[in-house]
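Posting for a labmate who doesn't have an account.
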Amino acid sequence: MAEMLRIENIHKTFNAGTINEKVALAGVNLILEEGDFVTVIGGNGAGKSTTLNAVAGVWPVDSGKIYIGGDDVTSLSEYKRAKYLGRVFQDPMTGTAATMSILENMAIAARRGQKRGLSWGVTKAEQETYRELLATLDLGLEDRLTSKVGLLSGGQRQAITLLMASIQKPKLLLLDEHTAALDPKTAAKVLALSDRIIADNHLTAMMVTHNMKDAIAHGNRLIMMHEGKVILNISGEEKKRLTVEDLLHQFEKVSGEQFASDKALLS
């Protein structure tokens, strides 16, 4: 299988040399094969979202290398990496343009990375394609193409953002605590939808979550981070048999301390 993501020994320190110095990543190494769906768990400050931001190019890493689909993207800016990535954020307001319609948001996502001329418009064929895609969400949004996205619920917006993030079949889909702002019932729906979109499109994905049960239930691999490093990497049958208690025990064994995130345990 082809490698879709390779992270080689990346380091990142914020506010270096000041009283607020924070080592965020301390030599992260990770390889994702094509079709891998990896969940990323860890306490606050473990380096989960920092790793996703490093992959997305939100800021440069201090050292190390990042490859997406075999291409060295380490020195590429965030907007130049966009062609490789789909991304869904924690805040449902972030991934869409609130004042534009569902149709316009879908069209923008479908055209990402293409040159746009003065004749920009949405064809009948495109409308039908977006309608069919929206129908797969089972939320009735295919009949609301002209509705402003800002009028939708958080769950509806995240569902649309998932479609938009996957419409161009990116090499890598990044889900950054994308259900954290949703109520439990809506979160479960969005997670089920995420599973389906990733499987149907054979996408490679990384999902950061605070919820241990979600990290165990979704994906084919689980990594746990602590103090800016990957300390556990579990896959296959071992992951299928995993329980929250197992995960806590393994964390304590590897790190030598107790897992201290109530949010992860109580979610």
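Reply:
Got it, the structure tokens are right above this. The two ends are 35 Å apart (CA to CA).
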